[in-house]
Amino acid sequence: MRSKGPLWLVIGITACLAIACLVLFWKLSHLPSTSLGPVLSHNLSSLENQEPAHQTVESVDNLTGRLKAKLEQNSTNGEGWALLARSYVELDRHAEAIQAFKKAVEILPHDAQLLVDYADALGVVNGGKLDTQSAQLIQKAMEIDPQNTKAQLLAATLAFDQQQFTRAIEVWEKTLAGHAIEPDLVKELSANIQEARSLQGGSRSLSTDLPDFSKQFDPSLRGTVSVEQLLKIRIDPTDTLFIFARSTEGASMPVAVVKATAADLPYSFYLDDAHSVMPGKNLSEAKEVVIVARLSKTGDAAASTGDLEGTSVSVKPGSREVKVVINTTLP
User: Fold this and answer.
1) What angle do CA 118, 248, 314 make, to 5 degrees?
2) Whole-angstrom distance, CA of residue 258 vs CA of residue 276
């Protein structure tokens, strides 16, 4: 039931350890002038080498301070401010998060996930209440991306708080029908719907009125990567194979990445939200993506001259049998 706490706290953002990895990926002494994407991509392969013992709150707090100092020298980096804001959230420093979110939104006003994360932080600071500013942020996010899960959940919570029970039920049921979400959240939403129906005077049994939506949509991607025959002679079995999904909208930062070797080709790949590399940028929330497969002799995820690459057609999350043919040599 909703009395157990704010609904958005159920979905969270990302574990503190993930934030630590991402901040470490960003080479603070060489902050890019426009985007985190190239540096994050450049350092994807180092994720496996991070030692858990170093992923402490203290280290994240220290790195966050360095990150803020760099951003103050380069105040136009929207993705940097967004990363700083989300780091503050993980450290329960929500008042500071709000200031960073404000700067990020000024630079990236059309990022739906950023808008709802900002609204979420405002709600926490306001004691669990979504105020007028939060409502405006949520509405804008819904206009930009009606399928954003967190935007839907916050919109439903807002409607419930305003006693717009029919609207809240409509949004919750849409969320259940359109997303693959955790079983615990399915139960939470079902309980919320039952409570809302009771309050509007139309309580009905969930067992007969609500189907089980939890397994109806699987946003993962599956497919195969192969190599054009003429390029096979240029491949060494030890070459590193990077496969990543890139949204066709917004920033070019991958929303999911997996790594293999040339010896695995032809390779059957699987990508889902567990392969995400940046908080708030998940495969399940992308409208369409392209799958890029790249062979690197250096083991570096950043594109280099001489790398071999192939790209799929645009596909929607949940697609199966996606075909990627590596057929191009990068200049």
Assistant:
1) 140
2) 9
CATH superfamily placement of domain 2-162:
Tetratricopeptide repeat domain (1.25.40.10)
> What's the CATH number for 221-329?
2.60.40
CB 3 within 8 A of CB 192: no
* Residue found under tokens 């159920």: 10
- Helix H segments across 180-325? 183-199, 206-209
CB 295 within 8 A of CB 239: yes
Domain spans in the chain, listed from the N-terminal domain onward = 2-162, 221-329
- pLDDT tens digits along 86-144: 888 888 888 999 999 999 999 999 888 999 999 999 988 888 888 888 888 988 888 88
Alpha-carbon distance 198 to 231, whole Å?
Answer: 65
Residue-wise pLDDT tens digits, 44-81: 333 334 444 344 555 666 777 888 888 888 788 888 88
Residues 6+ apart with CB under 8 A from 296: 239, 240, 241, 242, 304, 307
E strands, the chain, in order: 221-227, 240-247, 254-261, 267-271, 289-296, 308-311, 322-326, 328-329
